[in-house]
Amino acid sequence: MRRSVVWAVIVLAVLALSSSVSAATVDIVNYSALKPGKWSIFQESGGTSKQGFITVAGASGQIVRKYYNNEGAGWTFDSSTVFKVTSTSFQIIGMNDGKDMWIFEPACTFPRLLTVNQSYHRSIIMRNKRTNATQFTVICICVTQKGITVHTAPGTFSNCIKIRKYEYSPGVMRMTTELYAPGREKLKSWVSKIKDTTNPEKETQSSFTKELIQFGDSDPPIP
Hints:
Layout: H1 2-22, E1 25-27, E2 39-44, E3 50-57, E4 63-70, E5 75-85, E6 89-96, E7 101-111, E8 113-115, E9 120-128, E10 134-152, E11 155-169, E12 172-181, E13 185-196, E14 203-216
Antiparallel strand pairs: 1-8, 2-3, 2-14, 3-4, 4-5, 5-6, 6-7, 7-9, 9-10, 10-11, 11-12, 12-13, 13-14
């Protein structure tokens, strides 16, 4: 009788442990650097090209992430993304592609708590505010690991997560793997991009790696 009780306790403990592991979650907002003033600068591996972002406050409680490029002649605006955070969700409202503003209809919404190794797939319509043209877009994200230690030039970050992303719009597909740090957003990213050409028998492909080289919470050196 005692042995059966012991085995029952062991089984329950194992079940509880496996359940807690399978149900591991991450609050993605805590890793997204969405507080105004935060900034980061990245450099492509083996090159001198730099990219950076600045987070600023937007209208109606929204948050805007502005992206810049530096090819050696100073910072130039590239694009921006508009976010909104609620107590339960993380929303992408729209984006400026450097020429036009596009609004997501409806907003691309993910739960703040993402379950590790669960894919979150969203199919949305983007509407051009200037021309009223629409474009179909697919975004898929998955947190594949948590509790990672990441080494970068500015220092070592603990309790990081690994995210895989898939993005598709007509003629363009992008696969990205990124390492995020708490309160900092990405530290390293590996990007593969495939784009259709005018010749249906061919396509262009590119890939690059970026790593964090500078960051801060105020007084950004960009633009």
